[in-house]
Amino acid sequence: MRIFCGRANPTTGSVEWLEEDEHYDYHQEIARSSYADMLHDKDRNMKYYQGIQAAVSRVKDRGQNALVLDIGTGTGLLSMMAVTAGADFCYAIEVFKPMADAAVKIVEKNGFSDKIKVINKHSTEVTVGPDGDMPCRANILITELFDTELIGEGALPSYEHAHRHLVQENCEAVPHRATIYAQLVESRRMWSWNKLFPIRVQTSHGEQVIVPPSEVEQCPGAPSVYDIQLNQVSPTDFTVLSNVLPMFSVDFSKQVSSSAACHIRQFEPLASGRAQVVLSWWDIEMDPEGKIKCTMAPFWLILCSPFQWRDHWMQCVYFLPQEEPVIQGSAVFLVAHHDDYCVWYSLQRTSPEKNESIHPGRPVCDCQAHLLWNRPRFGEINDQDRTDQYIQALRTVSVQPLDVCLCVSDGSLLSMLAHHLGAEQQCFYCFLSKIFKANHLEDKINIIEKRPELLTSADLEGKKVSLLLGEPFFTTSLLPWHNLFFWYVRTAVDQHLGPGAVVMPQAASLYALVVEFRDLWRIRSPCGDCEGFDVHIMDDMIKRALDFRESKEAEPHPLWEYPCRGLSEPQQILTFDFRQPVPSQPVRAEGSIELRRPGKSHGVVLWMEYHLTQDSTVSTGLLKPAEDKGDCCWNPHCKQAVYFFSTTLDPSAPLGGSRTVSYTVEFHPHTGDITMDFTLSDTLEDEH
């Protein structure tokens, strides 16, 4: 059956109705899932297997049958491990129907259908009794319900219900226990992801400073965790203010509560500084003795064992509501708060027992900035070097006091830069009135809250636009070329541009680079066999989901978190001239990219470069040429697009020596889409 789905096109800005397969959402879910990454997580798999073997042995040693409840079974891997370890029967719960169907097939393929029952329900809907899904309660509880924050996928409510209704009292649990750790740091870089810094503008009248509104400075910020690959943050980017503090633990073998709670740790700061950020991670112990442990700690804290890369579990960055000065050796209290799905932190100077604010609610943004800007966007706006590039470009434009500057970008401060550099009146297409007011510009910048095609001459007070300005940045953009929405706005307001009007940026170029990833390739790599179990069915399921649409599409990734080597030189693929309206016919490019360095070609990275002027370009991708070995330095504020090669993602495939990558890339003006096909060619045997 086919269904109509409405979507907002991020490039053209229009609402489109598309005919989709009724299972389109399923395909999307599977294609973008972390299943492959989890199956490639050797450390996770081994520790679970060891913990399951130990739990089954303890039950058998008591002379009992081992009855397993596996919540969130996914592929059925942990249930198959349990049966192999000697479990008498497993009830494998999986709420996502396509995944449950795959688990049934994988279990059958591996010969465990007589001992594993896959139940396609949410665990809270599972019944126990003669006519229920399970005839009796289980005595071993196995789960993998964790996200980077540990509890963000609803682990606590699921455990709470399972202990009340599905498992025996004092059951064995794998994992047995989880502990959340925290470390307090000062970091200008990370703090720039949460607060707006003063922005300095050098003008002919001296330095002007754009200051943040008091509402932004006092706002506690967004409630959500910022999960990142903390291992890619340089230790020089932060100052450690505390030891690693175990904040709280959850014993999964006993009744678990999902009620809100707080946990307090007193500590003496290791150094004086400004407490701004809490770095956090967790570990899980698979056995009661804590001998089998799987940790998410950053690599600099793992001294005894090889580091396991993973993307399905990373590390957490939390921002304190306000930065607090701390003094070396002067005790303070770090408080971890949580409800059923979310963790947040506060710092207390006095004993929490005497402090009535020890139970604050989840932080909520009341300044609107944290709703308008995500964490990378805060960092981008706070990047003074980037701001200086725009200032230098604006200086090349002859802006007169009566010129009208129309700024088109979401949450952009460019109109304020233009004002300080000479434009007396601007019309600004977004909502930033609080910042304008804080800088006494509310009567100098007119905010037009209209779609661009609805703009009238009256909105511009009968004047023509002399300078059309954009970064460009739009909150609806997922892929780099989605910001071509600026081009469509420029086209929509064409009638309002005066003779000789300047458009900045004047053009944009799409660039491509063939890369070898250190680790990111694993998220799209087939697994085949996992710990001795055949999971090819899962590989095929992901491939079908990708073939449904997305095998020929790129996906966004912040590549500063994912090291890679460039195997080619950056190549310009398409150019878009913003000085002219959007063309009526498609723009197509065909060619090839020569590989200059040896390595396995995992995919192509694509990004946009915006040409502010002929001599000034802002890159959303590479910030400087790749080093001799090809190591890449990516813009940390933007996500780049990655087009994966399916033929080189299989770890069992030969290294190969492809000399070129051929491509066809086409921009479709009517839809704003960019379609692409990249193909490896001239494959030779590797000489090394």
Give the gist of this structure.
Helix content is 19%, strand content 32%. It has 688 residues and is an alpha+beta fold. The strands form 9 sheets. Strands 8, 11, 12, 13, 15, 16 and 17 form a 7-stranded antiparallel β-sheet that branches. Strands 25, 28, 29, 30, 32, 33 and 34 form a 7-stranded antiparallel β-sheet that branches.
Helices, strands, pairings?
Blueprint (H helix, E strand, L loop, with lengths): L1 E7 L6 E7 L2 H8 L3 H5 L2 H20 L5 E5 L5 H8 L4 E5 L3 H13 L6 E4 L18 E6 L11 H11 L1 E8 L2 E10 L1 H4 L7 E5 L2 E5 L3 H5 L7 E3 L10 E2 L4 E7 L9 E7 L5 E13 L7 E3 L19 E12 L5 E7 L4 E6 L20 H4 L2 H7 L2 H12 L8 E4 L6 H7 L4 E4 L4 H6 L6 E3 L17 E5 L15 H8 L4 E8 L2 E11 L11 E2 L2 E2 L1 H13 L6 E3 L6 E3 L4 E7 L9 E8 L8 E11 L2 E4 L20 E5 L15 E9 L4 E9 L7
Parallel strand pairs: 3-4, 3-6, 4-5, 6-7, 20-21, 20-23, 21-22, 23-24
Antiparallel strand pairs: 1-2, 8-12, 8-13, 8-15, 9-10, 11-17, 14-18, 15-16, 15-17, 18-19, 25-29, 25-30, 25-32, 26-27, 28-34, 31-35, 32-33, 32-34, 35-36
How is this structure best described in words?
The structure is a single chain. This protein is an alpha+beta fold. Strands 8, 11, 12, 13, 15, 16 and 17 form a seven-stranded antiparallel β-sheet that branches. Strands 25, 28, 29, 30, 32, 33 and 34 form a seven-stranded antiparallel β-sheet that branches. A hairpin with a 2-residue loop joins strand 9 and strand 10 (206-210). The longest helix is centred in the first third of the chain and has 20 residues, at 42-61. The radius of gyration is 28 Å and the shape is globular. It starts with a strand and ends in a 7-residue tail after the last strand. One of its GO terms (biological process) is spliceosomal snRNP assembly. This is Protein arginine N-methyltransferase.
